Amino acid sequence: MNKPFYPLLFGGDINVYSVARAFHEAYGVTSTCFGKYPSGPAYDSAIIDYHVCPQNENAETFCRNVADFAAAHKDGTVIILGCGDSYVKLAAEHKERFPENCVAPYISGELINTLINKETFYALCDQYGLDHPATVIHRKEMGHGFDLPFGPPYICKPSNGVEYWAHPFEGNDKVFILPDRTALEAVLDKVYASGYGDSMIIQEFIPGDDSFMRVLTNYSDRNENVKLMCLGHVLLEEHTPHGLGNHAVILTETNEEICEKIKGFLEAIHYTGFSNFDIKYDVRDGKYKLFEINCRQGRSNYYVTGAGYNIAKLVVEDRLEGKELPFTLARNHSLWRVVPQKVAYDYTPATYHQEMKSLIQAGAVTNSLFYQKDRGLGRTLRLWKNQLGHFYKFQKYYEKKS
């Protein structure tokens, strides 16, 4: 490349840090980040120039931050990556307003709004033959007068996550697992009373613990062709109310059948950029069932970089260097975790422990947050405090949620 490039990231969590780390590992560059709070994994990092902006999710503020940064870096190309649903939505809807020296690898605002809404996403799954859990769409005007073709326990979650988090209320869990109809109706009443106006998703509960989950991360190039697919076998998730479903331990694996199906889907809808699917294996019928698509790299995206497929290089080589990338189905075997090793062993099925041990002994293990080139004392102490906190959190919540 003849000109420099500047990663501009939005968010402040582990997703942001993982992307910034990928850029630093591949190119030695510092990423600039706009986050809402003076805290989190991206704050006080040696590889991130972090800016606190409480109005970060406001469209005009977001676009102004992009424009100001681009104007200050006219000598190169600015790579804009959202690391949360609200930021991805903003980037997709407003990318035509960005200065000419900006690259925002996203689909249109219209398509992104179709995909991030679970109701319309499941309709697309039906259209393209992708399996998903049995689902009922509930709207506020339906009240309690609706039938369910499946029994409890019930999964209940918002179809529109961005709007849901914009209407906070006491007990607004990320996903609700409800034991009976009475509990389900109570949650629906509470959600709509908060001011949330979109639909709610009610689904059958697919049996199986965390180890039945899979995560699939993909990258589609500027020509809308899928170029990387990396499947992770989730062994453990977080179980705090707001963190339920966040990945904690992942083994990479390969499943050509499910990857081929999703590759066909992404290319049929003309997708571009990163995508991330949450999937669960259903032992009752032997099918892999999709829960949702994230139109971005997932918060656990370092499992991909750590396995040897640096996600920053995909964007740079595709969008800046104009290379024709080969299609890669990830086959490297590795272990990723963001919890202490003892927590990983204590809360994952014993059947996977020997495989985990072998990968650890081989050095094929990574943790997104602990980077040799970012070891400032204050940040390191906060990371270890966070790690110790997982012992308390899993002891408190895991049995309750399992």
Q: What would your notes on this structure say?
A:
The chain has 402 residues and is α/β, with parallel strands linked by helices. Helices cover 36% and strands 23% of the residues. The protein has helices spanning 14-27, 59-72, 85-94, 109-116, 118-128, 161-165, 181-193, 256-268, 302-306, 311-320, 341-347, 353-361, 377-401, and strands at 5-10, 31-35, 48-52, 77-82, 102-103, 135-138, 154-158, 176-178, 200-204, 213-220, 226-237, 247-253, 273-282, 287-294, 328-329, 335-337, 365-366. The strands form three sheets. Strands 10, 11, 12, 13, 14, 15, 16 and 17 form an eight-stranded mixed beta sheet that branches. Strand 1 (5-10), helix 1 (14-27) and strand 2 (31-35) form a beta-alpha-beta unit. Helix 3 runs antiparallel to helix 4. It is globular. The model has no long low-confidence stretch (mean pLDDT 95).
